[in-house]
């Protein structure tokens, strides 16, 4: 039996997902002040450098996925550029995004910090600024939506040998 049959080739072609998405939308924003104020600073070990969140790119992709219901998969991601102060060095971290259809500029989320209003189960709630890549769309990091604002890293520790944005990866 030949492995180059048309049926075999078709099955391989249908498995493509991220290589050629059907739709890709991107929008670049400054990191909202709430994300920096309520986020946490990653512990910096000796020999590591601290980089701070500077810009965020919201990315929506619609791609073929034969394993998904309907044969397509939607993905919402946030690509955060972290910069080292006083230099042009930058690194990127990618987060899953939570997307809510609303005209509000902020979403209410739970917090363990004392600056939130005490709500159910003695957890506080706080208004958390959202990105608005389109009208009636609010986007925040999924780790915040499903957890709390401290799950977003306002600053990160970067190894000296870690590739920087623009360098060969």
Structure commentary:
With 169 residues, the chain is mainly β. It has three helices and ten strands, in the order αβαββββββββαβ. It has helices spanning 6-14, 33-38, 142-145; strands spanning 23-30, 40-41, 49-64, 72-83, 90-101, 106-111, 117-118, 124-129, 137-141, 153-158. The strands form two sheets. Strands 1, 2, 3, 4, 5, 9 and 10 form a seven-stranded mixed sheet that branches. Strands 6-8-7 form a three-stranded antiparallel sheet. A hairpin with a 5-residue loop joins β7 and β8. The longest helix has 9 residues, at 6-14. The radius of gyration is 20 Å and the shape is globular. The N and C termini lie far apart (41 Å).
Secondary-structure map:
Layout: H1 6-14, E1 23-30, H2 33-38, E2 40-41, E3 49-64, E4 72-83, E5 90-101, E6 106-111, E7 117-118, E8 124-129, E9 137-141, H3 142-145, E10 153-158
Largest sheet: 7 strands, mixed
Uncertain stretches: 5-13
The helix/strand order is HEHEEEEEEEEHE
Count of separate DSSP helical elements? 3
- Distance, first to last CA: 41 Å
Mean of residue pLDDT values: 82
**Rg calculated over all Cα atoms:** 20 Å
**Share of helical residues:** 10-25%
The helix-and-strand class reads mainly beta
Strand content: 35-45%
User: What overall form do the CA principal axes indicate?
Assistant: globular
């Amino acid at each position: 039996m030949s492995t180059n049959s048309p049926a075999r080739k078709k099955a391989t072609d249908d498995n493509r997902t991220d290589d050629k998405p059907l739709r890709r939308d991107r929008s670049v924003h400054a990191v909202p002040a709430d994300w920096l104020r309520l986020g946490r600073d990653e512990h910096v070990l000796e020999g590591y450098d601290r980089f701070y969140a500077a810009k965020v790119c919201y990315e929506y992709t619609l791609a073929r996925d034969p394993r998904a219901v309907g044969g397509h998969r939607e993905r919402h991601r946030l690509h955060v550029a972290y910069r080292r102060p006083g230099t042009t060095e930058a690194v990127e971290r990618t987060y899953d995004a939570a997307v809510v259809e609303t005209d509000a500029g902020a979403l209410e989320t739970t917090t363990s910090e004392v600056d939130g209003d005490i709500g159910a189960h003695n957890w506080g709630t706080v208004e958390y600024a959202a990105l608005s890549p389109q009208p009636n769309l609010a986007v925040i990091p999924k780790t915040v939506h499903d957890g709390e604002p401290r799950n977003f890293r306002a600053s990160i520790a970067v190894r000296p040998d870690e590739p920087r944005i623009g360098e060969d990866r």
